[in-house]
Amino acid sequence: MNRVEIKNYAKEKLSGNLGSIWKILIIALGISLASTCVLSILFNKMDADFLDSLLGILMMPLGIGTTAFFVSLIENTNFEAKDLFKYYHDFVKVIGVTVLMSLIVMLGYICFIIPGIILTLSYSLVPIILIKKPELGIVETLKYSREKMQGHKLDAFVLGLSFIGWAILGTLTFGILYIWLFPYMQLTFTKFYLNILGEN
C-alpha cells in the first residue's frame, strides 16, 4: 500500500470508532495524570525534572499498551481496557529497550541533527516489534527495527511530513481538531509499520 492508500485505510478505520478510541485514550490519560499527582505527593521535595523522568519511565509500558490498542483496531482483534497494562509484565525489557534506544538517538543528535533523525526513523518500529515479536531481547529488538526500516526511513519521514498541514489546522482550531487528528495519525502510522513488519 502506498501512503495515500494507508491514510485512506486509517480514515476508514477511524469512522465509527472515534468514541471507543477516546474511551481507551482517556483511561490512559487518566492513569498518567493520577500517577503524576501521586508522585508529586510522595516526592514533593524532589526535583521536578527527576519526577518527570520517573513518570516517563513508569508510563513507558502504558504507552506500548496504547500502541497495542491501535494494533488491535487494525487487525480487528479484541482489546479490553485491562490490556493497557499487559506490558508491565515485561517492564524491565520495555524500559531497557526504550532507554537504550533513547541513548543511541541522543548521541546521534549530539553528533548532528541529521544522524539523530536517521536513528529516530531507524528505531521507529520498536513499539510494534515489542508487541508483535515479544520473543526478541533488548538488543535484538533494536537490531530488528534497524533491519526492517532499511529502505523505509524516507517513507516514514515523508509520511510524517504529510501531517504538517493537519497539525497547523489543529493549532488554528485551538486543539479541537486533534480529537480526530490524533487517532487518525496513530492509525496511519500503526498500519504503515505493520505493513513493514509484514504482519498485515
Outline the fold blueprint:
Blueprint: H1 3-14, H2 18-42, H3 48-75, H4 91-111, H5 113-122, H6 126-132, H7 138-148, H8 153-161, H9 164-172, H10 178-197
Short account of what is shown:
Helix content is 76%, strand content 0%. With 200 residues, the protein is mostly helical.
Q: How would you sum up this structure, described in words?
A:
By secondary structure, the protein is mostly helical. Helix content is 76%, strand content 0%. It is built from 10 helices and no strands. The protein has helices at 3-14, 18-42, 48-75, 91-111, 113-122, 126-132, 138-148, 153-161, 164-172, 178-197. Helix 2 (18-42) packs antiparallel against helix 3 (48-75), helix 3 (48-75) packs across helix 4 and helix 3 crosses helix 6.
